[in-house]
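Convert to structure. Protein one:
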Amino acid sequence: MPSDFTPLMASAKNGHIETTELLLQWGADYTASNNDNITALAFAAHNGHSEITNLLIVAGANINKKDKWGVTPLLLAVKNGHVDVARILIDAGADIEIKDNEGLTPLMWSSLQGHHSVTDLLLETGATGMYFEGGTGRSFENAIVIKRAPNNVIGVFAEGLWVNMNYPEWEKSSQALISDNDKHYDVITYSTPKGMKKLYFDITDFFGKW
């Protein structure tokens, strides 16, 4: 076992409930983290161990502690589709608007990964963290406006996020960049159950700025 990987981390990672209970009773340090700043709670959340997640929270583990990538236990649970763990963390006060080092929020990750039950949970609890507004996306005049994206990567993610949230069954077919009247648009064609459809995204706010 690596020197920075404690018995409590191993127990939490592997879902050993009774062992975790005993280690906590014997005074195991639930605040400890490895060289990547990952805690026992993060390991439990990543692997979907809801009972261990609850044990560590009750013991006093920091629910919003970030690892070296800026990822919290909630972000780990969300990215991996563990809705029960996400609910436990949210009920305990986890920050639902927190961002990782790439600028992605829990709601963005759940939507991008297609974890609809987690997305529904986050929306029910008031999560926002979106980078788009207005428009149906069916024409230049009604384009979906991508706003406040911190970089090009997040801007592109936001396009996929909007589609995953509104038309999860659509599959991307092609994409074109079009400039018109000092504005820039991504025009993306999707294969849908009703044939090919186009969506228009106004990317003027971030295009060419990074």
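Protein two, convert as well:
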Amino acid sequence: MLWTLVQSHVLSSLSPQLASDITASEKSVRFTTNGPQVLLNGSPIFIKGVCYSPAPIGVNPVVEAPYGDYFTGEYLDLWKRDLPLIANLGANTIRVYGWNNNADHRLFLDFCASHKLWVIITFFLGTAKESPIDDPRVILDAFSSQVASYAGHPAVLGWSFGNEINGNWNLFLQAFSDKGKCNWNPEDAGAGHGGCLQSTEARGPCADSIACVYKGSSGIFFLSST
């Protein structure tokens, strides 16, 4: 019953034609890349985006459920208020952070599509303790499940695999270094190494450690063909 009421509330803000267009466009929207250029159905697009991570007043999303995932029907008052304002500013893309793999985000994505906003979803990795690199197939399976749920939606531009995984607080640098794959020295952290918090160098321990941890994490995808 709650779902029906929420769905009705959101869809009532969409014209019948627009709601129909959203369903039809799922069959026609295709994002691809050509080098760094993003293409929509073969034509280049220019992304004008903002990060969007709302939270109700007085709530700490780091320690309180739903841990930043305010993109479900339960919190529609937040995004139904914000998304038209973001679109009116001239943005065409938002990147979101908290995204529970088991929650339903269809209404949120439909509303984004109705305001011509594309969405970059962040796949939650957390820390290396939450997503151990020793068992990468578990990570890949969870990611594949999330992509399968929403890949065909016209509002979804793509995914960000984790967030700031090069930061030493997320422990991936340490995990890959312990495996002998990344040459990261914790003693260098104060100098800006191991996460590049202070350093702007193009080469050296800082840049090398960042390249290594992202190469290591992206290597998870190669498991899909093994």
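The domain at 11-163 is CATH 3.20.20.80 (TIM Barrel). Strands lie at 31-34, 37-40, 43-44, 49-51, 93-96, 118-123, 156-161.
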